[in-house]
Write a structure and sequence with these properties.
Structural class: alpha+beta
Number of strands: 8
Strand order of the largest sheet: 1-7-8
Distance between the termini: 55 Å
Helix content: 10-25%
Shape: globular
Largest sheet: 3 strands, antiparallel
Number of helices: 2
Order of helices and strands: HHEEEEEEEE
Strand content: 25-35%
């Protein structure tokens, strides 16, 4: 009977780990990077989510039933905000988004990171971090 909670927890953790294994975070990455992802907050103060939801610029992501592809291609700053060149992870079409809100600071990843969400079928930027502070 004491083994049941342990088995349930092990299965839940295993499922979560499998769901996250799409290549955004390199194996054996620095714990500082994982902590930064887990504590990143949106401009409104809500959590951006974690590694599974943050796409790193130029990092290939494994797509179910397909070849690895780069979801977050590039970004640039302009007078109207940050422009992001992405591939929609749900249908693999090219998307151009503009983020004009505050950014997540103190990025230790060495590159930009975007957290995406979908509302009413529309791909939105949940949070964005342009990269390391200089």
């Amino acid at each position: 009977m004491k083994l049941a909670p342990f088995v349930a927890l092990t299965l839940a953790c295993g499922a979560a780990a499998a769901a996250r294994d799409v290549g955004q975070i390199p194996e054996n990455s620095d714990p500082k990077i994982s902590t930064w992802f887990r504590t990143a907050k949106s401009p409104s103060g809500t959590a951006c989510c974690n590694e599974a939801d943050g796409y790193r610029e130029g990092v290939r992501v494994r797509v179910v039933g397909g070849e690895p592809t780069v979801i977050f291609r590039s970004w640039w700053a302009a007078s109207d905000g940050y422009h992001l060149s992405l591939i929609d992870p749900s249908d693999l079409r090219s998307v151009h988004l503009i983020w004009d809100g505050p950014v997540v600071r103190n990025n230790p990843t060495g590159g930009a990171v975007v957290w995406l969400s979908k509302e009413n079928g529309i791909l939105l930027v949940r949070c964005f971090s342009p990269g390391p502070e200089t």
